[in-house]
Target: Polyamine transporter At1g31830
Amino acid sequence: MKLRATLSKKCHYNMGEHSGVDYQDLRGEPPILDKFPKVSLLPLVFLIFYEVSGGPFGVEDSVKAAGPLLALLGFLIFPFIWSIPEALITAELGTMFPENGGYVVWVSSALGPYWGFQQGWMKWLSGVIDNALYPVLFLDYLKSAIPAFGGGLPRVIAVIVIIVGLTYMNYRGLTIVGWVAVLLGVFSLLPFLVMGLVAVPKLEPSRWFVVNLEHVDWGLYLNTLFWNLNYWDSISTLAGEVHNPKRTLPKALFYALLLVVLGYFFPLLVGTGAIELHQEMWSDGYFSEAAKLIAGVWLSWWVQGASAFSNMGMFIAEMSSDSYQLLGMAERGMLPEFFGKRSRYGTPLMGILFSATGVILLSWMSFQEIVAAENFLYCFGMILEFVAFIHLRIKYPKVPRPYKVPLGTIGSILMCIPPTALICVVLALASLKIMIISLAAVVIGLVLQPCLHYVDKKTWVRFSISTDLPDLLHVEDDNIGF
Model:
């Protein structure tokens, strides 16, 4: 009876109404998180939007790599292969485990804490690498107006100032980040709606069907699609900060999916159909030039400003995800307890500092290197997620799932096959340099977890006692009494 009561209380926190796990409650102490506001539906939609997309900035390379037709088809077909399965898995497992840490908790519950740590290490590192890209993109869009940002000391100073300023915003609170994301999202998408209206008389549909399969750069094409349409699972790492995540998270993922796909496809449709094709010019930042050719300098400046603000939104959303992931791992006893320390605004203090430091250290990489490296690490993490999703479906079918992907076990397995095949292709297309760097990072994670376990055993650093609590999924669900 005592074990049943403990598990029932654990179930209440992991599966029930509570939107954030506070392990102090399980020790009989008063909750400390209720005073911090939770994220509602609209800010959550735009946080997901910025975790995944942020608008069409960065999709230009798909036209350069494969031409208009394949670029347009890619952003229509690829979501069915990758984005929708990933979003569905996130909705099911994110509502099944509505706590900070997200995919780390999923993999830990399915495969054990060792592989949960590896998932956390690879996903956090890929997120930090990804976040190092946004100051680079920000300055790339502004360097045409301010040439000093093209290189040298001014560029270095600008990168550091941007990172420090946006990091402080994350420190001030997740709800602030969420509503800022809403405002930035509206401002970033609006110029493309205007561009579409102005471009109507100039559209020539024949331009959309240009393709030359003999000159397709498949590596650049697939990496661009993959980078612009992944990271749907990132929002799970802060599920504990969401208001009523059982209902809010699936809705937010659905609305964000529509917003992301339209936010890519419509600007590409306008840009490739309204101006004469110069395929080699379609690279990072070309949408501002397209806006100039379609409507004039005024719209070009607006697009550049929208890009700058979009990169701000992507940075703060990604940092929120990365930092709350570290907090969740600390609550699970995978990292030292000080990673679970919150600021007076309820934000993960050490998680933010570590994530910002990683971004600064990785900002030297080029755009293509950043995209390839984070894609490589992200692929390893997604394989573990797919395995955890299927494992939990097979081994614990009776555990409550507030949202359940409307497919049986066989259907779930079939759903995971196309994205897994895509992962294999992306990994195979990586350069030798990226493979070596990424595999070295993976090896560090394999060694780091035993080292942290040894430190915990020697009590050199304090770890959370939550590791001593029984894990709901480590007990046969037939004995829990649902």
In short: DSSP finds 17 helices and no strands in the chain. The CA atoms of residues 231 and 257 lie 12 Å apart. The chain has a mean pLDDT of 82.
